[in-house]
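Why do we care about 3D structure at all? Because function follows from shape, and shape follows, mostly, from sequence. That is the central idea of this module. The next example makes it concrete: a single protein chain, its amino acid sequence, and then its structure expressed as tokens.
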Amino acid sequence: MSTEVYLIRHGETMFNQLNKVQGWCDSPLTVKGINDLKRTAEALSQVHFDNMYSSDLKRAIDTVHLMKDANRVSEIGKIKKLPEFREVFFGSFEGDDVVDTWQQVGLAAGIGEETDVTKIINQVGIYEFRQATKKADPRHLAEDKEELDERMVRAVKVLTELTRNEKRVLLVSHGDFIKTLGIKYWRKSDGLHDIVFPDNGSVSRGILNDNGKFEIVDYNVNAKQL
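And the structure:
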């Protein structure tokens, strides 16, 4: 039996609005973020889910409860929180300005003071980009490609075990983590270059098979398209 997974990116947060790096650190949802999520929740209100899951960060937990409260056709109990699906960890860069951070990463990657993250990734590849992020981090705490790959594989394994008897589930995660899953598992990705960053409140749909194989079939779909 396969399980359909609706991956939702949390709503806009204060750090998103202020253009700050937000990985394992947290900030509250904005009014805009909540309003955008209400549109996604309404678009999914007639979709039956056997269960709902969330990253263990508060912005994701708040988002999944909005989805749960709006759904009219599902009986969802206590939300299980999955730390495996939390955001990418940016180490010492957490809370810093995004543009300044990418500039430092670009320098560490050897391509100069580039501030466009897509250009950095497409020039050096996702593996070297993650390595450069760890290198640029003064404390070298940021997750590199190997650490993130290991966590993604573990996340898929955990979800496979949890959903063996579930046909469709909703799971709230984070922008860079969903994007990195997309680079690895989306049929339209080449596994190396950048793909569009998912919007707050967007839906990416994946298929999880009993054998643990995971594939993303729809990516970054907004409420109007659902």
